[in-house]
Amino acid sequence: MVMPEEPLSIGEVIDLLKDEFPDVSVSKLRFLESQGLVSPARADSGYRQFDSEDLKRIRFILTQQRDHFLPLKVIKSKLTLWERGEDPGPDAEPPAQDPLDQEGEPMTRSDLVRRSGLSEKDFDALLEHGLLAPVGDSTVFSPDALTIAIECRRLMEVGLEARHLRTVRLSAQREAELLRQLTAHLLSSPSAEAQARARDLLAACSDSVQALHRAILTAEVRALLHE
Fold first, then answer.
1. Which class is domain 10-83?
2. How is the chain split into domains, by residue range?
3. CB-neighbour burial class of residue 226 (10 A; exposed 0-12, middle 13-18, buried 19+)
4. Engineering a disulfide at 49: which of 37, 41, 90, 200 sits with its beta carbon 3.0 to 4.6 angstroms away?
């Protein structure tokens, strides 16, 4: 790949990389920037300006994702070695992960449909019933949406419909509301210590609620087999 002598726009970076990385997109590059993995300069007009080092850095990140399936947190930990010119290697032990950290980059509708195996009709049904939803006012979906889409597809393949799966969504929302009430006093505090405590408590309680949910569901299904 020929390295540029002049700064590149985000569109020009995508044009240079898309043959090798077909999934590269504006939203993906913006997400990498939001996660601190790349920091392009800004023109006076506010537009991003990528230089040759930015391009090498992006290429390294995308290669790690494509060839080694590494999450962004692990790739970020390897960038220091890469910046020194050392080979970070694919076998480094990943750091312990916070269960509330969001791994991966946001996905477009077409990404989700392709990777989940959903039909356009079923995707629209999941949108209609709130199983899938874009992030805020954007047109992209969070990394969690892929797991949701895949599991919904599996359930729909055996006969359930999107309207039936609303029960699962409503149950999860009630559980999240329970945890919100538990940590409301911490979440509303401006103290960094309180915010950190809220995060730890939410992570721990989320694990317990998931384990409890699975145990109760398993017991109920086992009872069905003996009716």
1. mainly alpha
2. 10-83, 106-160, 171-227
3. exposed
4. 41
